[in-house]
Structure prediction request, 204 residues.
Amino acid sequence: MSEGQFIEAREESPSGNPEKTGHLFIISAPSGAGKSTLCRAVRNRFPDLLYSISYTTRLPRKGEQNGVDYHFITKEAFEKGISESRWAEWADVHGNYYGTPAEFLDKSIASGQDILLDIDVQGTRQVLKRYPDSITIFIMPPSLEILRNRLEKRSTDSPEVIDVRLKNAQMEMAQKDLYGHVIINDHLQDAVAELIALLEKYRL
Prediction:
C-alpha cells in the first residue's frame, strides 16, 4: 500500500449515530489466554461493533489479506505517521512497526460507532493517554500452569518460546490493575458470556 492509499484509508468514515459518542473497548491478554476467541465471539454477537485493524510495515504472510488481517504500508509512510502524531499507539516489534491510526478512532467515536481494540498492555498505556475514557478489559488465565498447558497443546511453539511467552505473561498479568475490568477465562463459555454482558451494559 502506498502512502497515498494509507492517507485515504485513514480518512474512511464509518456511518454511525451522531447523537451519541462511541465507546472504545480495549481488550488485552497474555498469549494463550483466549483473547482471539473471545474477540471473535464478541464480534459475532455485535456485528455493528467496529474492529480496528492494525497497520504494519512487515510483509504479508501466506494467506494474509491487506485490509483484513493488517493494513500493510511502507516503513517511510509509517515513520511519517509517527512524526505527524497519527498513531494512537505504535510499537517497533523485531524491526517492524505496528500501529493503530488515531484518526480512525477519532472519527468512529465522534460518529457514535463503538470500537473493539485488541492490543497489548504497552499499547493500552499509550491509548489511555489520548482516550482516557476507554473501557479496558484484561483477560486472565486461571493460572500460569494452565496457561502453559494451553500453549503446549497448541503445538505451535518450542519449549523455549513457551518459556518466553510465560515470562511475558507474568509481566502483563502484574499490570492488570491498569484495566477497569478483569475476566478470568477458566471456562470459555462463561468468559464469553461475561464479556458480552459487560459490553451490553456499556452499549445500552
User: Anything to note?
Assistant: The longest strand covers residues 87-93. The first helix runs from residue 3 to 10. The helical segments are 3-10, 35-45, 75-83, 102-110, 121-130, 144-154, 159-173, 188-203.
